């Protein structure tokens, strides 16, 4: 089944795009320079996670500009109608251009492994797992699945996604051999036939083509696959 419907939040997107930003501090345990910022818009205060390109650690297999992949993940989640990636925009901030994502208040003692113990979360976890398969997520840690204070499950940290070459590293292998839910397959068929136009400005052409090809492959064989690479898990796991 699809994740429960969440209405779009144009006011939150507008705040992210137009609000005044103030750095509060660096987020702990992040390998790149990731910051918590306060957003002030029309007298309302909120928080967001800011990933400036200036804070990115150089990688041999991904080009600079990981923040664009964060925005691409949000746009794809919205286009599919799954909407479990918090609102994310490209934004000029205190440390330069980067991505700005709505901060999700959550119970941070919860993560993929604790959520997996409760069957009521399995539908959304399966959707997140399918999402990782098609975006080729190279760094799905357990802590990237959040249980928000609103009771919803959220998926965050997608900077290492969308590579054209196989890169999948994830903790989410527990659904191996099970069928992909039919409504998710229907959504994937739309993606395989016509990737969202907004992706073109965020990813290279070969990455967009690979995204469509991965979706098409899952439509042809709608089963959760086994781990095939020599390094199927990220480190650390949570």
Average pLDDT, all residues:
93
Tally of separate helices: 6
> Helix and strand succession?
HEEEHEEHHEEHH
Contiguous low-pLDDT stretches (5 residues minimum) are none
How do the strands of the widest beta sheet line up side by side? 1-2-3-5-4
Number of strands: 7
Helix content: 25-40%
> What is the distance, rounded to the nearest whole angstrom, between the alpha carbons of the first and last residues?
26 Å
Percent of residues in beta strands: 15-25%
Q: Mind telling me the C-alpha Rg?
A: 17 Å
The outline comes out as globular
Task: List the topology elements.
Layout: H1 10-18, E1 20-26, E2 35-41, E3 44-52, H2 66-80, E4 88-93, E5 96-102, H3 112-115, H4 122-135, E6 145-147, E7 153-155, H5 182-193, H6 205-220
Antiparallel strand pairs: 1-2, 2-3, 3-5, 4-5, 6-7
Helix pairs in contact: 5-6
Give your account of this protein's structure.
With 238 residues, the protein is of the alpha+beta class. It is built from six helices and seven strands. The chain has a five-stranded antiparallel beta sheet. The protein has a two-stranded antiparallel ribbon with strand order 6-7. A hairpin with a 2-residue loop joins strand 4 and strand 5 (96-102). Helix 5 packs antiparallel against helix 6. It starts with 9 loop residues before the first helix and ends in an 18-residue tail after the last helix. The relative contact order is 0.15. The mean pLDDT is 93.
